[in-house]
Amino acid sequence: AHKTGLRCLRVVHGKGLGSPGKSPVLKSRVQRWLVQKSEVLAFVQARPIDGGAGALVVLLQPVHSRRR
Question: Which residues of the chain are modeled with pLDDT < 50?
Fold first, then answer.
């Protein structure tokens, strides 16, 4: 997404209701992965209409164009 110039995207990881213990597994793993990526400026839980607790909205760094 970053290489194509996208700045904002939604990652749907699900709410974890089908996981053992009914607790989300992917949510915490995705969050740990995102904080390691230099391209990621910020992320927040999505609005209820966009997935709520089952999704994240991610803001990416702008792609700087090369000047010749």
Answer: 65-68
Q: Identify whether the C-beta of residue 7 lies closer than 8 Å to the C-beta of residue 62.
A: yes
pTM of the predicted protein model: 0.81
Does residue 40 form part of some domain? yes
Nearest to 58 by CA among 50, 49, 17, 66: 50
Structural domain harbouring 39: 8-49
Q: How far from the centroid of its chain's Cα atoms is residue 60's Cα?
A: 9
Per-residue model confidence as pLDDT tens digits over 3-15 = 777 899 999 999 8
Assigned domain for 2 exists:
no
Domain count, the chain: 1
